[in-house]
Amino acid sequence: MRTCLFITIALAITGALLFMGLQCVQARTRAKVDTGDQAGKVERGEVSVVVVESGTIQAAQKVEVKSRVSGRLMRLAVREGDRVQRGDLIAVIDPQEIRFQVDQSMAQLRAAVSGQQRAGLSVQLSEKELRTQLVQAEQRFIQAEREWKNQPELSRSQTEQARLAYENAVRNQNTLRDITHPQERVRVESTLLTATTQFENDKRELDRKTALLQQGYVSQREVDAARSQLSASEAALMRAREEMGKLDDKHRAESSSAENAVREAKSALDAALTRSKLDLNKEQIYLEAKATYEQAKANLARVDQERASYRQAAAQADQIRSALADTQRQLGETEIRAPMSGVVTKRFVEEGELVAALSSFSTGTSIVEIGDLSALQVDLEVNEIDVAKLEEGMDAEIQVDALPDTKLTGAIKRIAPSSEVAAGAAMQAGVVKYKVEVQIDEADPRIKPGMSAKCSMKAVDKKNVLRIGIEYLGSDSEGRFVLIEKRDAKGKRIEPEKRRIQVGAMSVAYVEVLSGVEEGEAIVKPEYSGPPRQGMMGGGPGEG
Question: Which of 509, 499, 396 is nearest to 55 (CA)?
Fold first, then answer.
């Protein structure tokens, strides 16, 4: 019995469902017939085109902080969400390797500077020596030439000069022995005697005042002054004794020097007398002196080669100095600091990881991303058809998925001049998209970078214009037209009138009519042989 009851109920439900489905099919059929027969009208209203696109919220200004030096990340001082100021420490790259490079470059620089100094000193010494040799060779040449031409007069003159020099040396020796040394000894002994007397007087004065101090007749200041005076007298006495002790050594040295001068002058005089008696071959001496002079001039040209070596050493030192400055810069840049104020929105690496330097050959490793969250924007990728409808400065309504009850406003800040091919299936279909940035007017503090948002931008917004439904617009080889409804005297619809019109703005639902029809005229749909209109051709949300 229970089984039969279940079967009866199932059959009843199935029959009811079949009856309801048949009724729905008949109702849809009647609605389609009625709609197809119903005429439209030319009316006034709004024609608007709204471009709707979803994107991601990002900071309007953001930077990826990278290192200009490679190495191991020794310290990472910030985390995601931290607020930083410009110049705050972000991370530290292990400076050990770069510090070693700095020390190595400094050692190389010291060696290069030392080489440069040696080269410079060599240039100076060589030039000085060669110029001295040149001057001496020139003087010998001139002298030899003069002697060769004026031998008798020269010999006489040399002998006379040697005799005068000898007499002067003897005279100086006598003056030193008989006058200068005795006077100097008297002066030193007088100074020693004066210093000794003064010291003894000052010592007695100190003893006297010390006794008076014990009796209370003088002050401690007077005793201290007497003691200072005694110290000064003692120092003067010591200097006088020292000078007296050195006097004999000085006199012996001066006497020895005077004797040597006399001896040398006597020797020179004897040589001059000997030369004057000899008949030497002055012509041969003249030729040798001339050859030596020419060779000295040629040798001086070698200084230019040494100058070139000095310039090369200086250039090498400058090169190493430049390399040292670069490594010192790199050492300073092991401390990575914030280039702007903002919030750390991303952290790409962790402590201990190796990071690559930013250079002309490498994009470098991103360490953190800093964004200015006081100004946010929505990054969109708009297809090429819709982007042609947009302009910079155009207003936009923004709906954040995470805040469904909050409406935000903004404006298009930038439309990319070049396209970006969309990824995935869109790329295979050849869809071309352009990046569009929508600036949010007043950012809600609850909004975070990376959230999804939908932007609605009115590309066309015309109000109170003549319009018709887009399904009533016809088109042929001559242009656009509408079919004006016509009825006979009995009210039966007859062949419609085909009338040419000019159209303006078009949306997915309506077309603006500029001329050709009047408000209130009835129109019918032109014959349409294509597939049924649906999706966008049937009207979209937010467009009229």
Answer: 396
Alpha-carbon span 340 to 86, nearest angstrom:
4
372-538 fold: Elongation Factor Tu (Ef-tu); domain 3 (2.40.30)
Among the listed residues 527, 52, 65, the one whose alpha carbon sits nearest the alpha carbon of residue 335: 65
Chain segment 322-337, per-residue pLDDT in tens: 888 888 887 877 888 8
Our measurement of the distance from residue 185's CA atom to the centroid of its chain's CA atoms, rounded to an integer in Å, reads 76
CA distance 63 to 82: 15
Name the residue with tokens 């396209």.
Answer: 419
What are 113-152's pLDDT values in tens digits?
Answer: 888 888 788 777 777 777 787 788 888 888 777 766 766 6
Taking only the tens place, the pLDDT of each residue in 473-523 is 988 888 999 999 888 888 888 889 888 999 988 888 889 999 888 888 899
- Quote the pLDDT of residue 435: 92
pLDDT tens digit sequence for 278-290: 545 666 777 888 8
C-alpha 290, offset from chain centre: 64
CA dihedral of residues 24, 28, 31, 35 (deg, nearest 10): 160
Query: How far, in Å, CA of 146 to CA of 141, rounded?
Result: 8
Helix, strand and coil content of the chain, in percent to the nearest 5, comes to 50, 25, 20
Q: How far is CA 57 from the centre of its chain?
A: 30
Domain coordinates in residue numbering, the chain: 62-94+334-370, 126-300, 372-538
Length of the chain: 544
pTM reported for the whole predicted model: 0.44
Whether the CB-CB separation of 398 and 55 falls below 8 Å is answered with no
- 3-class DSSP string for 455-492: EEEEEEEEEEEEEEEHHHCEEECCEEEEEEEEECCCCC
Pair of tokens at residue 435: 């990046």
Determine the CATH number of domain 62-94+334-370: 2.40.50.100
